[in-house]
Amino acid sequence: MSKFPVSPKKEQELISEMQRLLIKESDIEEKFIRCSGHGGQKVNKTSSGVFLRHIPTGIEIKYTKERSLGLNRFFARRLLVDKIKEKLGISTQKSKEIEKIKKKKLRSKRRNKKKREE
Questions:
Q1: What confidence tier does 32 reach under pLDDT thresholds 50, 70, 90?
Q2: Cβ distance 90 to 63 under 8 Å?
Q3: pTM of the model
Q4: Domain locations in the chain?
Q5: How far apart are CA 31 and CA 52, in angstroms?
Q6: CA distance 103 to 118
Q7: How far apart are alpha carbons 54 and 23 in whole angstroms?
Q8: Which of 31, 43, 44, 85 lies closest to 68 in space, CA to CA?
Q9: Which CATH class is domain 8-90?
Q10: Residue 60: count of CB within 10 angstroms of its CB
């Protein structure tokens, strides 16, 4: 039985990424919290939200978007890995997308400036 209700491939990718960044499960403090919002009585009655604190870095993650506890645990850990990567200066998919948008805006700004000069 796997830890998270996701595909074994995704689970293994997350675990190997955590090992590569030297993130140990023993360094993560995990609490389960009540969610709110969509999901009706299910999320109001059960503690399916996840709060993670990475003790060495002090990074805190709260994830309550899914109705399933297992999915929230998986996504919270994935978000934690991304935050630690950002702190270490390693580029993530999100930072690459932001950089791409900045370049696109800069090109557009240059084009508009040239048009105004003409």
A1: very high
A2: no
A3: 0.75
A4: 8-90
A5: 7
A6: 23
A7: 9
A8: 43
A9: alpha beta
A10: 12
